[in-house]
Amino acid sequence: MEDTFYAALNSSPDELLCLAAKNQSRPGKVSLKAALHRSDKKQAASLCNALASFASAQALAFQNLQNSQFHCADTFKTPSPKHKRRKRACCSPTAGKKSEVQDNGRNGGRAFVMANLKACALVAQYAFSHPLKVFQPCDLFPAVQILHDQLVFFEDDAELQDIVAGLCESWWKDHLPGRESLIAQSVPFLLSKSLEVGRKVNVHRVYSMRDAFTMFDFVDETIEDLKHLLMRCVLTPAYLRSTDGRRFISFLFNINVQLTKELIVMVKSQIPFGRKSILEAYGEIIFRAWKTASEPCVQEIENSCLQSLLEGAVYASSKALASSTRKVLSGFISQKAQEGVEALLFRLQEPILFRSLQVANSNVRRNALLLLIDMFPLENPDASKEENDNLLERQFLFLEKLLADQCPDVRITAVQGVCRILRLFWEVIPSGITVKLLSKIVDDIAHDNSSSTVRCAVLQGITYLLENPASHDLLKAIITKLGPLLNDCNLSVRIEMANMLLALKGIRTISFLKVSSLESLLSALECDKPPVARRLTRLLIPSYFPSKVSLEEACNRCVALIKRAPQSGVRFCEWALQEGVPASSLLELVKVLCNLVGSPDALKDEEKEGIFAALNELCHKLANQKELKVSLGEILTRDMLKALLMNATTSKSRTSIIEMVSVINPTDVPELFVYCSQVVSNFSKDTLNPINCNEARSVHSLMLAWGGFNDLVKTLIRNFAQVSKLDERFGWPRSAVKSLKKKKLESKSPWTKSMKGKVSVAKARKDVTVTGLAEDLRNALCAAWHAENLVEVEEMRQALLVDENLPALLSGLRNTVHFVFHSGIEIPVPDFLKASPLRAYATLAVHMTLNEKTGKRARDARESGIDHRNPVDYVCEELIQWAENLQSLPKLSSPISHKKRQVKHSRSLRTPCRGALTDISNGSSSCTKDSTAERCSEAELFVSKGKILNTLLESLLYFLSLNLVKDEALQYKCLEFAKKLMEWLLNCLRMWDTLGAKNKVSGVIGKDSLLCTRMCTAHCGKMLYVTLRKNTEGALKSADLSNCLLDSIFFSESVFGGKGAMSLFTSLNPWFPDVFISISSWATDLILNDLSADVSCLCFDDLVQLGNKSLKPWVVNLLTAASETYSQHGDQPGCPMAEDECTYGENAQEIEDAFQPAMDQNFSFSSEMLKRMSNLLCNGDPVVLGGILNLFLWHAAASLQTKNYAVVVGAVQIACRSIHSCKLFSEGAQSKQHLWEQFVAACEVMITQINVISDKKDSLPQLDSKALLRVKDLVQNLLASERR
User: Fold this and answer.
1) Nearest residue to 1021 (alpha-carbon basis) of 1078, 959, 971
2) Helix/strand/coil (H, E, C) string of 552-603?
3) Can you list the pairs that 151-156 forms with residues at least 24 positions away whose Cβ atoms lie under 8 Å?
4) What is the pLDDT averaged over residues 86-95?
5) What is the Cβ-side half-sphere exposure of residue 418, based on CA atoms within 13 angstroms?
6) Region annotation Disordered: residue ranges (predicted)?
7) Which of 297, 545, 835, 1233 has its CA 20 to 30 A from that of 1272?
C-alpha cells in the first residue's frame, strides 16, 4: 500500500488525494504517512499546490451540500397545500423507492465530500510532521486555513475535527506565519471539548494555547459565546482539580479588566456552596492571578475581591459562610512569607479587624477572632520593631479578653485559637504571656459551668498543645487542675478528658496518674458510659495487662484489679479484646479466674461476684469467634462449671454463671439444669427481691437457648393451678385452667427430669414447707411475674405466642388477676409482685391481638376463655367489670395477714374488702380513727389498692394508645372508670383533710401515698388526652374527670403539703390543655342547653343559677387565691399574674423531697398554681379561654349573692388580665363572637347587681364596700377597653 501511495504521488498529486480518500483505514493511514515522509522538495511543492486546490473545491462542495440540506429541511417543514396529491402518491411503493433513492444519493454525496476533506486533513497533518521539513509552512497554510474555516461544521466527524484542531494547535505552538488566522475556530473548539469531556489532557491543550486568548477582542459583542465558555471554566471541576486548569483560570484574570470583574463575581457566587477542595483552589487561583497580573487587574483583584472577601469573612451571617470565605483567603494567608503578601493583608484588614473584635454582635466577634488566629502573628513589614511589638501585644490583649467573652462560641474559639498559637509559636512567645493565658484557661475556663462545650474546647486545646514537646514542662505544673473533669456531668467532657489522658500516656515527663488518681479512674471505669470506659480501658491496659511482661504476670495484675475494684475489673475485661489485648491472652485469663474461684483461698463475696462477672464478659466477647468458642468449651468443662456453681454463693454470681453458660452451650451439666429448675419452680421470701429477679431473667434466657422453654411454661401453669383451688374455697366464679397438652413422644429436653423433681430439690435447698394459703398465693404471683418478664422480652414473647400451652397460661393468668382483685391487697408479698398478673395478662392480650397469625390467635383466645373476636376488647371490659363490681361479690374471710401486724388488728382484716372505687372510710366504723395504727392501716390499704388500680388504668391506657379498642362505648367505659377512680381518690383526700393537722399520714407511708396519687393523676390526665385525640366530641363526657383532677390537686395541699401538691400539678401539666378544653366545652354546653333565654339578655338570677349548677371547689379555691394574691401584690407588673415564667415544673424534686408535713407555710402552692394556670389560659385558644372565664363569672355571681366577695374579686381580676393578655375579641375569634357576647352580658349584669348592693352602704361592712368598689372598677375598665 505504501508503494501504491508513493507511485500515485510521483504520477499525480490529485491521484494521491483520491487514493487517500478511498483508503482511510488504519493500515492505509500508516502507509500514507510513510509514503509522504519519503517525498522530496519537488514532490512536496507540487503536492501543496494540488492540496490547496483540492481542499478549496471540496470545501465549496461541502458548503453547497450544507445549503441544500438547510433548504430541503425548510421545504419539508412548511409544505404547501399543492403537495397533498403528491403525498398520496408517496404512499405507493414506486414513490417510496424513488424518495429513498434520493435520500441515499444525498447522503452518499455528503459522505464522499467528507472523505475527501479528511484526506486533505491527513495529508496536511503528515506533511507538517515530515522529519526533514520538506513541506514549507507557507505552501501548506492555504489548505490548513480552508480546513480551519470549516472546523465548526465538521461536527458529524469528530476525528476530522481533532485532526484540524491539532494542525492549528501545532501551527500556533511553532509560531509559524499566519497562526493568528488559525485560532478563531480552533481555540473555542478546544475549550468546548475540554469542558465537555473533562479530561486533564484536554485541559492541558487549552492551557498550552493560553496566549492565543490575548488575540481576542473581549470588548466586542461577538465574543460573548467565548466568554461564556471561559466562565464555565471557573465552575468545571476538571479545571479546578488540575494544576494546568488552575493556572489557566489565573491567566484569565490578566487578559482584560472587564473579564476580571466577571470572573471575580463568578468566584464569589460559588463560595457559599463550594466544597473545601474547590474553595482552596479558588484561593490558589486568586493568589496566582494577583501575583502575575498587570496593574489595572491587580487593583481590581485587591479592591473588588480581597477586600470584599475579608469583609465577608468578618460580617458573614452564618458560620458556614464565614468558614468558606476563610478557606478562599487561605490561599493568601498561607503565602505570607512571599514578598508583598503580608503588607497587603495588613493594609486590607487593619481597618476592620480590631474594630470587629469589640462589636456587640457575637457572630462578628467570633469571625474576626478566627481571622486573627489564621493571620497570627499580624505584622506590618513597613513598620519598626517597636510598633510591631506593640501590635503583637495588642493581639494578645484581645485574645485574653475574648477568653472571658459572654458568648460561649467566642470563648470556644478563643480557647482553640490560643492553644493553636501557643503550639505553633511556643518558642517565640514570651513565657509570661504563655503562663498568663494557660492559667486563665486551666483555672477559670476549664470549670465554666455555663457551657459544657467550652470545657470540651479546653481539653481539646490542651491535648493539641501536648503535641509540642516544649510545652510539657509548663503543663506539668498546671494540668493537674483538670482532674475533676473526669467526673463532669456531661458525657462529651468526660470523653475529651479520657482523650487527654491517653495523650499523656505517651509522655514520660507527665504521668496521667498525677492528673487523675487511680481511684478516680477506676470509679469512672466502673460507672461511666461505654465511650469513656473503653478509653479508660485502653489507658489502663499497660498497667493491668501489659504486653511487655510474661502472660502469668499480666493475668495476676488483672486479678489484682478485679480484687481491688470488682466492677471496674469487669468493665476492664469487657473492653480488653476491642482495645488490643490478644485473644489467646484472654483465654489464659479465663483459666486463671476459674482456678482462682475453685482454690481454697478465701474470697469475699464481692470479689467472687466480680470474678464471675468478669468471666461472663470475657466469654461473651470471645464466643463471637468459632475457634475461640471451642477453646472456651475446653476450659469450661462440666466439672469446671459444677465447681463454679458450687462456689457461687450470691445471686449475682449465679446470674453471671447462667449468662456465661448460655453463650458457650456445654453438652451436659445436669447440676445446672437442676439449679435453674429450682429458680423457676420454687419461691420463698428470700428470693423476692430485685437482685434475684435478675437471676430469674437470666434463667429464662438460658432455658430458651437450650430448648427448655416449653417446660418453663408448663411449670408456670402448674403454679397457676393453685389459684383455681382458692377460688373454689371462697366461692368465687372462675375459669378453669386448661390442662397441659401432652406430646405423643416424650420430650428429650434436659429440663424435663429436673422439673419433675422440683419439690424435693426445693426442700433440699431451703428448709421450707410448701403448704398454706399464703404460700400458694405467693407462688402464683411469682409465676405471674415470670410470665410478665417472658412477655416483655421480644425473643421470648415470640416463642410464647407460638407455644402450644399458651391457652392454659393465659387462663391461669386470668384466674390470678381475678383473685388479686378480690384479695390481692392482703397478700403478704412485695409491691412489685402484686400487679404482675394484671400487667402480664394485659400485655399478652395486646400481643395476641397484634399477632400476625390470625387463626392461631383466635384459637388460643377461644381455648383460654376469651372472646376470639378481639381479645383486647374482652379483657378491657372484663377488667373494668371486676374493678367496679367488687362490692357485690361475697365477703372475704381470709386468714392472710402481714406478719408485722399484731393479733389485735386481725378484726380489721376480717372485715369485708372495701370497694376499689368507694370511699376508703366507708364501713370503717369499727376502727378508731384517733389511733395512729389505724390511720397507718388505712393509708397502707389506700396505697395497696391504689397501686393495683393504677396498674389497671395503665393497662387501659396501653390498649387505647395502640388503638386496639375499637368499640366507642367501651372507650367511654374506660373514661368512666378513670372518673370513678379519681372520685375515690378525691374522697380519700377529703377524708384525710377533715382529720386535721395532727392526724395526717407521714413518713414512708405518706411518701407512698403521694407517689400513688401522683401516678393516678398522671394516668387520668393522659386518659383525657387519648379520649379527645380519638374523638373531640368526648370533651363533654370527660368534664367530670377534669373537675375531679383539679379538685384533688387543691385538696392534696392540706394532706401532702405545698410541694407535694405541686408535684401532682407537675404530673398533670402535659395534659392541662385537654383539661381546659373539656371544662370549657362543659361550661359552654350549660349556657346553650340549660337556659332558654337569649345569652345577651341574661339576668342576675340566671348567672346565679348557672353558678350553682357549675359550682366546683377548685374554682372557688383558685379565685380565692387570686384575690389574696392581688391584695398582697397589687397591680404591679411584677406581681405573680404578670410573670410568664415558672421553672418549678422543669426542676421538680423527687417524691421523697417533695413530701412535707401538712402545715407547710414556707411554700405558697396556691400562688404557684395561679401563675401556671393563668399562663396556660392566656397562651391557649381564645375559645377555651372564653368558656373558662364564663365559668369564673358564674361562680362570682353565686358568690356575690352569698357575700363571698373574695371569689368575686379573684374572678374579675383573672378575667381582666387574661383578656388583656390573650385578646379574646380579636380577628382570630370573630367566628366565636357569641362567647364574647355571653361574657359581656354577664359583666353588665354583674355591674347592675353591684350597683344594687352598693346602694345599701349602711348595711355593709367597710371591707365589703371596698371589695365591691374594686370589682365595679375592674369590670367597668374591662368593658371600656373592649368598646375602644
Assistant:
1) 1078
2) HHHHHHHHHHHHHCHHHHHHHHHHHCCCCCCHHHHHHHHHHHHHHHHCCCCC
3) 151/185, 151/186, 151/189, 152/185, 152/189, 153/62, 153/66, 154/114, 154/117, 156/114
4) 44
5) 30
6) 81-103
7) 1233
941: its cell numbers: 390499704
- Quick check: 447 and 413 in contact, CB under 8 A? no
Q: What is the DSSP letter of 510?
A: S
Q: Is 1247 helix (H, G, I), strand (E, B) or coil?
A: helix
d(CA 1156, CA 1151): 10
Of the candidates 912, 900, 992, 914, the residue with the CA atom closest to the CA atom of residue 949: 914
pLDDT, tens digit, 9 for 90 and up, residues 1213-1223: 676 666 555 54
Q: So what's the pLDDT on residue 1281?
A: 56
Q: How confident is the model at residue 927 (pLDDT cuts 50, 70, 90)?
A: very low
Cα gap 859→607, rounded to integer Å? 52
Residue 895 binned pLDDT confidence (cut-offs 50, 70, 90): very low
Half-sphere exposure of 99 (CA within 13 A, CB side): 12
Q: Which three cell numbers stand for residue 517?
A: 488518681
Cα–Cα distance, 477 to 791 (Å, whole number)? 58
Tell me the three cell numbers of residue 912. Answer: 369485708
Contacts of 1052 by beta carbon, 8 Å cutoff, 6+ apart: 989, 1013, 1060, 1061, 1064
pTM for the model stands at 0.70
How many angstroms separate the CA atoms of 617 and 631, rounded?
16
Query: How far apart, in whole angstroms, are the C-alpha atoms of residue 65 and residue 61?
Result: 6
Whole-angstrom distance, CA of residue 1049 vs CA of residue 972: 24
The alpha carbon torsion through 731, 736, 737, 741 (nearest 10 deg) reads 150
776 neighbors 812 (Cβ within 8 angstroms): no
Whether the predicted pLDDT of 725 surpasses 80: no
Work out the mean pLDDT of the chain and round it to a whole number. Answer: 76
Looking from the CA of 805 toward its CB, the CA atoms found within 13 Å total: 21
> Where does the pLDDT of residue 924 fall: very low under 50, low under 70, confident under 90, or very high at 90 and above?
very low
DSSP string, 828-839: -S-HHHHTHHHH
* 271-312 confidence digits (pLDDT tens): 998 899 999 999 999 999 999 888 888 889 998 899 999 999
Per the listing, cell 471554566 goes with 233
Alpha helices in 851-967 (DSSP H): 854-863, 871-884, 906-909, 932-961
Residue by residue, DSSP assigns 118-175 as: HHHHHHHHHHHT-TT--S-HHHHHHHHHHHHHTGGG-TT-HHHHHHHHHHHHHHHHTT
Is residue 1274 very low, low, confident or very high in pLDDT (cuts 50, 70, 90)? low
What pLDDT sits at residue 1278?
Answer: 57
Length of the chain: 1284
Residue spans of beta strands (DSSP E) within 1154-1270: none
> Does residue 924 sit in helix, strand or coil?
coil
What does the angle CA 318 – CA 321 – CA 326 come to, to the nearest 5 degrees? 125
CA–CA separation, 844 vs 850, rounded Å? 10
Query: Could you tell me if 1066 and 1144 are in contact, meaning their C-beta atoms sit under 8 angstroms apart?
Result: yes
580: left (phi over 0), alpha (psi -120 to 50) or beta: left
DSSP per position, 954-965: HHHHHHHHTT--
Q: How many Cβ atoms from other residues are within 10 Å of residue 311's Cβ?
A: 16
Nearest to 851 by CA among 835, 872, 875, 837: 872
15, burial (CB in 10 Å: exposed 0-12, middle 13-18, buried 19+) = middle
Grid cell locating 94: 414506486
Look-up of cell digits 407517689: 1011
The one-character DSSP state at 337 is T
